[in-house]
Design a protein that fits this description.
The structure holds 2 protein chains of 2 kinds. Chain A is mainly alpha-helical. Chain A has 4 helices and no strands. The radius of gyration of chain A is 18 Å and the shape is flat. Chain B has a single domain, classed as Cytochrome c oxidase, subunit III, four-helix bundle (Four Helix Bundle (Hemerythrin (Met), subunit A)), CATH 1.20.120. Chain B is 75% helix and 0% strand. The longest helix of chain B is centred in the last third of the chain and has 31 residues. Classes of the chains: A mainly alpha, B mainly alpha. At the A-B interface, helix 2, helix 3 and helix 4 of A face helix 1, helix 3 and helix 6 of B.
Chain lengths: 98, 197
């Protein structure tokens, strides 16, 4: 049986890459619910679209920072990637909702 | 125990460029190309909103969900494998690349079923503009997945060497960077094709 100490030790072993993975999976499932819910409801699809697109690019940004290791990469590369996320996300949101 | 177990590869202090500079040129080139695809799709959708909205209801979002979780998990395996290799690695580093590879193979199998379902229902790229973009974009992405599977196979081979070579870490980082590109492009494709309007 797992003791409290063993559980604490397990959580301490969980690294940032694993936390990022858990956030990515949770955000994917949440986006799925929002997107498919909006598809069925037909109302408030504008908000659903903004939520789905924003979450997608936050996920992309996290993949870059933590999986591609851009968080500690030379800053031009890190900020170029971040700029791509912001510019493409904003473009898609504007085209999809205006 | 292999010699690799005893000699952690030192990480350069300060900011670190993962992989070769060339891989980042390829990655950003691909990201620019796909951002044009995404924009063209969004503009076409705004012209034919009804066609796109109706066509989207014919997609099975469960395939998209499963494939996103498979690719995100593959990326976790690959990122963890690189981290463990850098830390000096134990004998099972190659297992992380193998599991990443299997997730990628799962993506391809899922895609075959998904496309098969569409073709059996009489849906082809000629059906309408939505499906034309759907097949072209997911097809180009699938080519990236196949290239990525080749890269992961190579990475697994590198990680199995008893004694790491001087360029092994850099090559593994370059390969991992390419694989994460495959993941990030799919994340956006899943959002715009299956979920968003």
């Amino acid at each position: 049986m797992l003791s409290a100490r063993a559980l604490r030790a397990t959580f301490r072993r969980i690294d940032s890459i694993t936390c990022t993975w858990a956030i990515l999976v949770a955000a994917t499932i949440f986006s799925f619910c929002v997107g498919t819910g909006a598809r069925a409801a037909t109302t408030a699809t504008g908000y659903a679209t903004i939520t789905v697109l924003a979450l997608a690019f936050i996920k992309v940004w996290l993949v870059g920072m933590d999986f591609m290791e851009l968080r500690n990469a030379p800053w031009p590369l890190k900020y170029l990637y971040t700029a791509w996320c912001i510019i493409v996300c904003t473009t898609l949101v504007v085209i999809s909702t205006v | 125990m292999s010699p690799k177990d005893l000699t952690p590869i030192p990480k350069a202090p300060g900011r670190h460029l993962p992989g070769e500079a060339g891989i980042w040129i390829l990655v950003f080139g691909d990201m620019v190309m796909f951002s044009i695809f995404f924009t063209v799709f969004a503009l076409a959708q705004s012209q034919e909103m009804q066609v796109f909205t109706q066509a989207r209801t014919l997609l099975n979002p469960w395939f998209g969900l499963a494939n996103t979780i498979l690719l995100v998990s593959a990326s976790w395996f690959v990122a963890t494998g690189v981290k463990k290799f850098r830390a000096g690695g134990s004998g099972n580093v190659q297992l992380y690349f193998l599991l990443g590879l299997l997730c990628g193979v799962g993506f391809v199998i899922n895609k075959v079923f998904e496309w098969g379902e569409k073709f059996r229902a009489g849906i082809t790229p000629a059906t309408n503009d939505f499906f034309m973009y759907y097949f072209i974009f997911t097809g180009i992405h699938l080519v990236h997945v196949f290239l990525g599977l080749g890269v992961l196979t190579y990475m697994r081979g590198v990680s199995r060497r008893a004694t790491p070579g001087p360029n092994d870490l850099r090559n593994l980082e370059s390969g991992a960077t390419f694989w994460h590109l495959v993941d990030l492009l799919w994340i956006v494709l899943f959002a715009i094709l299956y979920l968003a309007r």
